[in-house]
Design brief:
Helices cover about 40% and strands about 25% of the residues. With about 350 residues, the chain is of the alpha+beta class. The strands form four sheets. It has a six-stranded antiparallel β-barrel with strand order 3-12-15-14-13-16. A four-stranded antiparallel sheet has the order 4-11-9-6, with no helix packed on it. The protein has a four-stranded antiparallel sheet with strand order 8-7-5-10, with no helix packed on it. The chain starts with 7 loop residues before the first strand and ends with a strand.
Length: about 350
């Protein structure tokens, strides 16, 4: 048997590798793995030391003023004259509403105005001629009765002075004269009252009732003005809520009008505000339009403690408050719509 042969032979004919050669292969493989791991670790350390963190991306979105079109008059929608997405001008007719209840209130208010005006005319016209003449006749009769009573009393007084009649007869004549004089005074007062007509307080009250009735008519007119709703400004109709023939309540929104005054809104940490204040010009990019534009900041507001950025370190850091910033384009941006992403450049 050859002792220099690297392989040994099993009695059954199987060959076995040299244990020393296998050990060398494993050793070489381990060294290779360690070298690769060392190289990867070195590359990671170098990359960590050489790479710099890029600037934070501040992203906002477009926004605009939205006006909800609604009216004071409850009723049924009879006609909608615009469509969603349609541009309108200030004063354009948007919708028509009809209410039979408001029409009935208008008739009632006009009837009350007519009744109050008739009453006022009656008060201003004064007392009827027939009543004045009747009071004058009564006054003349009282004058005549008072004159007769005075003559009777004078006669009785003369007879009493001569001792012809008793004192009782003279006193009875005196009482009749006094009663006739009082009746004359009362008849005169009634006659003068009839001639002067209603008192000034009654006339003032009557005029006040007329004004109240006119106010009721004006109030219903103000409600009826909302049976035709007009666009308050230029803009675009974004949402229409009811359909034709549907009932709406008082103050219920009928449609939403978006004004042509778009701007951008950003929520930023307070450490960004050192370079931004009201009137600052900023540069932005609108990815949806693939455009860059300049805007002017016109609004900065603290969003409250609920929107604070919490510090990640127990020491050496602080909680940063969040501020809302609004910026308006210096020039109109075509097709810029609310909801579009806006990227703040240079920060």
């Amino acid at each position: 048997m050859d002792t220099n042969n690297a392989n040994t032979h099993d009695p059954k004919g199987l060959d076995y590798a040299d244990p020393q050669a296998v050990s060398k292969k494993d050793h070489l493989l381990i060294i290779t793995i360690i070298i690769i791991l060392f190289i990867l670790a070195a590359l990671a350390i170098v990359g960590f030391l050489c790479l710099k963190q890029g600037p934070d991306t501040i992203q906002g979105q477009g926004d605009a003023t939205e006006i909800r079109i609604s009216g004071k008059m409850p009723g049924r929608v009879t006609e909608i004259l615009v469509e969603e997405g349609q541009k309108v001008k200030a004063g354009d007719t948007l919708v028509r509403i009809h209410s039979s209840l408001v029409d009935a209130k208008m008739e009632q208010a006009k009837a009350m105005e007519t009744a109050a005006a008739a009453t006022n005319e009656k008060v201003d016209a004064g007392t009827r001629v027939q009543i004045i003449e009747s009071a004058r006749d009564v006054y003349r009769q009282a004058q005549a009765a008072a004159g007769i009573a005075k003559k009777t009393y004078d006669r009785m007084q003369s007879l009493y002075s001569q001792g012809v009649i008793s004192e009782q007869k003279r006193d009875e004549a005196k009482a009749a004269f006094d009663a006739a004089t009082a009746g004359e005074a009362a008849a005169r007062s009634q006659y003068e009252l009839a001639r002067s007509g209603a008192q000034k307080e009654d006339k003032a009250a009557s005029r006040a009732m007329v004004n109240v009735a006119k106010g009721g008519v004006s109030e219903v007119h103000a409600v009826l003005e909302d049976q035709v709703l007009l666009a308050p400004c230029d803009g675009t109709i974004t949402i229409i809520y009811p359909h034709v023939s549907e009932l709406i309540a008082t103050g219920a929104p009928i449609m939403t009008l978006q004004r042509d005054d778009s701007w951008a809104v950003f929520n930023v940490r307070e450490n960004v505000l050192k370079d931004i204040k009201e009137g600052t010009k900023i540069k932005v990019r609108i990815p949806a339009l693939d455009k860059e534009a300049e805007m002017t900041v016109f609004y900065i507001r603290d969003m409250g403690t609920y929107a604070s950025w919490q510090a990640t370190k127990s020491t050496g850091d602080y909680d940063a408050r969040t501020f809302e910033i609004k910026a308006r384009p210096d020039k109109p941006i075509e097709n810029f719509r609310p909801g579009m992403s806006v990227i703040l450049l240079g920060h």
